[in-house]
Specification:
By secondary structure, this protein is mainly alpha-helical. About 60% of the residues lie in helices and about 5% in strands.
Amino acid sequence: MLHFPQFDPIAFHIGPLAVHWYGLMYLLGFALTWVLGKWRIDHGKTDLTLKDLEDIIFYSVLGVVIGGRLGYVLFYQPSAYLAHPLSIFYLWQGGMSFHGGLLGVITVMYLFARHKRRTLLEIGDFVAPLIPLGLAAGRLGNFINGELWGRPTTLPWGMVFPETHDGIPRHPSQLYEMGLEGFALFALLWWFARKPRPVGQISAVFLMGYGTFRFLVEFTRQPDAFLGLLIDGLSMGQLLSLPMIVAGAIIFAWSAKRSNRAPKP
């Protein structure tokens, strides 16, 4: 049995301003996106420019924040926020949804793609391998905050989180997610994208990979107290991940079929 290391969620102060580790993890995630994107541009993996990359990151920040917040409101606590709509803007109280953030990013990428006279999948294929390390940073932020802990376990690495107030060892599910949704997904996508692929397939692998990893990890993650388990004992995270897997499989199959029909040079 392990005990959660009592991290101070505040990394440092700038005058009266407290800089939290979680916010720094967001910054680290976007910084890693820039570094990896620049590498792909410099190595001829795309004909997008560095200016395009910086525009993508800027719009993605908006998509993550707005989509993540609205996704949490709509998917997790719609009645609570309907009763107190102004609390939607209280971002400092927490409450973000990955799936909402993904929809937000897809929306801004669609608008960016139209502006550049590209397809959404073309932009998605460039962006997808850049995302997982940012997700890993975010999950590390969750762990430092001691939030989103796992279900009880008897495994030797079970960890007691003080915020649960029950002294029960639990799965450090934040670290599982960091490993699977972050490092493992990054390795898979970076390997898959090393060669030219039919348009849409890299995006499809991201959707299937994240959806599968998240679905599996959710079996170890404590369900939200205000929701519990839902249909057939599945969590909200699992129910939201299933459409990702299905959409990814459809896109991959469509892309392969379209590629096979393309005339050979």
